[in-house]
Every structure is written in structure tokens, then in C-alpha cells.
Amino acid sequence: MLWAELPVEKRIFCSVLLFSWAVYLWEAFLARRQRKVYRTTTHVPWELGQIMDSETFEKSRLYQLDKSTFSFWSGLYSELEGTLILLCGGIPFLWNVSGQISGRAGFEPEYEIAQSLVFLLLATLFSAVTGLPWSLYNTFVIEEKHGFNQQFLAIRFLMTSCIALSAMFLIIDFSVPGFNTCVSLQVLVTIYADYIAPLFDKFIPLPEGELKQAIEMMAKSIDFPLTKVYVVEGSKRSSHSNAYFYGFFKNKRIVLFDTLLEDYSALNKEHPEGEDGEDDDTKSKVKNKKQGCKNEEVLAVLGHELGHWKLGHTIKNIVISQMNSFLCFFLFAVLIGQKELFAAFGFYETQPTLIGLMIVFQFIFSPYNEILSFCLTVLSRRFEFQADAFAKELGKAKDLYSALIKLNKDNLGFPVSDWIFSMWHYSHPPLLERLQALKDAKQD
């Protein structure tokens, strides 16, 4: 009865807060289950006896445990910060400050675009400043402790600033639905890969040789319009391995991290195999710590990635994203006229378009976004199995099997997961499930 007597705007505000904390508590519950797995699984399970040695397993366990603990505290801080901002009227306060700044710059109150730009800039700076300590701790304490970080503090700060400013312009772009997907893809895929990423990493063409010829032959066999193959020196910032392709229409490019390639990995160069003066035991340890994949395994990984393209996964994701955008903006057009939504967040006299976007997309759509996120996670896992199956059809099952094991070791991935945590969070199937799916074809 008390709830029904509350004004509509109060019920909206309380519902937003309650749902936000419900999501946080659900996520904390899942994370707690997974941390229990990290703490209790101290020995290599028998299924992994031939896959992962005890030393790597323990390193992976400790790394994931540190990440999970950090995620708990950073998530708690983020939830408390968001709650305080809402309770203390932080959004209308920042909007008023933005109006004062734009007014001093000569813009009258009717120039809502100028005030919106100032608001976005201040909000982005606030987010960057409050999030920077957490980002720095994650990179220079946790990642460095476990041997992944290779960055300098100044470079990290510069990257954070660039990403924050990019996010600001993407939010501005978000206001036009038909234009949104096209421009966002251009910014994130083309401009970032061609102009921003080279500022932080060195991209060099893959030298002529067996690997490049094999990549070009595989691309040609499935009609993939490959134009260039690059190797990026990602090891200067991180020891994680990766590979991806980008480009539109007939201009596709493949990028391989040097950490993915056994012949390029900096770790292997620091410990050349067979170095004079080393005993057999030392040589054996160096060999076991080799990072990256052999050429056949790299081809298998690319076969998987190209499978996403050949099976239309990229296009399907774009179509889903575009349909979701039009649906959301249709609902936004219906809801934007509801003054109660603005009043719920402290806007009683004005209804700025930008604030309306924030309220609807960030708060009102939260339940829908949670459901959509879970559905996309399930779909992504399905796509991953299909891409693995495509690599199997190319005759790469055996090499993909060994490549997945190596990548899991190099990235200190923990192969044991709580089933609910995995189901809710993992966009890629757990390692054991992927290996089991490849096992029959590998034996054949």
C-alpha cells in the first residue's frame, strides 16, 4: 500500500536503484561461486593431466583469483558511486554546471547542444579520473605481478584519455540511430586500426615465407578478400596473445600479435633455445615456457576466425545490433515525452534530449539490456562452436586442439569454471567443452 501511494517519479527512481543493486548482488553471487572454484581447485583435474602442468595451473589459479578479488572491490565501488550520484542529485548538478560554463562561453540556455557537449566532457573527465586508480592498479599491480604488463605509466594514461574522448564522441554519435552503426564501425574498426592503434603498437607486414603463403592460400580457398597481413608488437604492452581481422567489403586485413607467433614472441627471443652454457634441465624449462603457436597452429586459429566471417557471424551481429538500435530508439521516442521520467532524476523544469537518452538507455532499459546481454552471450558461444567446426572442416582440428591449449597457458586462462558463472558470463565456451567438441575429429 505504501508503494502505491508514492508519486510515479519516486517509484521510477526507487525501481531503478533496486534493480541496479539486484543486478550487482546477482553478479557478486556468481563471482563468489567462481572464487570458491579458484580457492578449492588447487590440483590439476584428471581430465587436464595431459594438457596443463601443475606450475601453469597454479599460476593461472592465482592470477584469476587476484582478478576476481579486484573485480569485487572495483564493482562495489562503482555501484556505491553510482548510487551516491543518483541520491545526491549528481546528474542535475552536473547539468547545471555545464549550463553555467556554456553560458560564460557566450551560449544562451536555448543552445542545448553546447550545454550537452560540456556535460559529456565533464562526465567523461569525471569517469576517467575516478576510474584511473582502478585501471592503474589493475595494469601495474595485478597484470605486472603475473607477468603480463609491459606498459609505461605515461603511455597508459595517454591511452585512457584517448579512449575516454573517443567514448564521448561515440555517445554524441549515438543520438542518430541510422547513422550510429555505420559511423561507430568506421571509428572503432577502420580509424582505430589504421590511425590510433599504430600510435601505441608497431605494425609491420608479415614477411614473405611459408606462413604468409599458407595464410593467403587459406584465405583464397574460402574467398576471403585478404589484402594485407600484419604482425603487431603487442608484447611491448602485454603478454596476452590475440589475432583479429578487420576491414570493409573487399579490403580485409589480418593482424597477428607477435605473442601468438612462436617465431616472433619476445619471450622466446629472451631465452633462445639451445643457448651455449645451459645444461639440459635449463634447456628443458626454457622449451616448456615457449610462448606462441607453431605455423600450423596459427593457421588453425585463423581458420577459426575466418569461420566467423564465412558463416556470416559478423554480419549477423551487425544486423542484431542495428535491429536493437531501431527498437530502442522507437521505444525512446515513445518514452521521451513522459515528464515523470525526468522528474524522477531531478529534472522538473527542463527535459534535455541528452539527459533523456541517458535516463532511458542507461536506467529504464536496464532489465532489457540484462536479458539481451545474456541472449547474446548464448549466441556467441554457439558461434564459437560453429567456427571451431569450420576449422575442423578445413582439416585443422588437431592443430586447433593444441593451439587452444597453448593459448590457454599463455594467457593463464583457468580451465575450471562454476557452471552458472560460465553460463552467464562466458561469451566463449569453456576450454574443456571446446576440446571435447574437437576431440573426435582430432582422433579421426
TrEMBL record:
<comment type="similarity">
    <text>Belongs to the peptidase M48A family.</text>
</comment>
<dbReference type="GO" id="GO:0071586">
    <property type="term" value="P:CAAX-box protein processing"/>
</dbReference>
<feature type="transmembrane region" description="Helical">
    <location>
        <begin position="326"/>
        <end position="348"/>
    </location>
</feature>
<feature type="transmembrane region" description="Helical">
    <location>
        <begin position="153"/>
        <end position="172"/>
    </location>
</feature>
<dbReference type="InterPro" id="IPR001915">
    <property type="entry name" value="Peptidase_M48"/>
</dbReference>
<keyword id="KW-0378">Hydrolase</keyword>
<comment type="function">
    <text>Proteolytically removes the C-terminal three residues of farnesylated proteins.</text>
</comment>
<keyword id="KW-0472">Membrane</keyword>
<keyword id="KW-0479">Metal-binding</keyword>
<feature type="transmembrane region" description="Helical">
    <location>
        <begin position="12"/>
        <end position="30"/>
    </location>
</feature>
<feature type="transmembrane region" description="Helical">
    <location>
        <begin position="70"/>
        <end position="93"/>
    </location>
</feature>
<feature type="binding site">
    <location>
        <position position="308"/>
    </location>
    <ligand>
        <name>Zn(2+)</name>
    </ligand>
</feature>
<dbReference type="InterPro" id="IPR027057">
    <property type="entry name" value="CAXX_Prtase_1"/>
</dbReference>
<dbReference type="GO" id="GO:0005789">
    <property type="term" value="C:endoplasmic reticulum membrane"/>
</dbReference>
<dbReference type="Pfam" id="PF01435">
    <property type="entry name" value="Peptidase_M48"/>
</dbReference>
<keyword id="KW-0256">Endoplasmic reticulum</keyword>
<feature type="binding site">
    <location>
        <position position="384"/>
    </location>
    <ligand>
        <name>Zn(2+)</name>
    </ligand>
</feature>
<feature type="domain" description="Peptidase M48">
    <location>
        <begin position="205"/>
        <end position="440"/>
    </location>
</feature>
<keyword id="KW-0862">Zinc</keyword>
<dbReference type="GO" id="GO:0004222">
    <property type="term" value="F:metalloendopeptidase activity"/>
</dbReference>
<keyword id="KW-1133">Transmembrane helix</keyword>
<keyword id="KW-0645">Protease</keyword>
<feature type="transmembrane region" description="Helical">
    <location>
        <begin position="354"/>
        <end position="379"/>
    </location>
</feature>
<feature type="binding site">
    <location>
        <position position="304"/>
    </location>
    <ligand>
        <name>Zn(2+)</name>
    </ligand>
</feature>
<feature type="active site">
    <location>
        <position position="305"/>
    </location>
</feature>
<dbReference type="GO" id="GO:0046872">
    <property type="term" value="F:metal ion binding"/>
</dbReference>
<dbReference type="InterPro" id="IPR032456">
    <property type="entry name" value="Peptidase_M48_N"/>
</dbReference>
<keyword id="KW-0482">Metalloprotease</keyword>
<feature type="active site" description="Proton donor">
    <location>
        <position position="388"/>
    </location>
</feature>
<feature type="domain" description="CAAX prenyl protease 1 N-terminal">
    <location>
        <begin position="34"/>
        <end position="202"/>
    </location>
</feature>
<dbReference type="Pfam" id="PF16491">
    <property type="entry name" value="Peptidase_M48_N"/>
</dbReference>
<keyword id="KW-0812">Transmembrane</keyword>
<feature type="transmembrane region" description="Helical">
    <location>
        <begin position="113"/>
        <end position="132"/>
    </location>
</feature>
<protein>
    <recommendedName>
        <fullName>CAAX prenyl protease</fullName>
        <ecNumber>3.4.24.84</ecNumber>
    </recommendedName>
</protein>
<feature type="region of interest" description="Disordered">
    <location>
        <begin position="270"/>
        <end position="289"/>
    </location>
</feature>
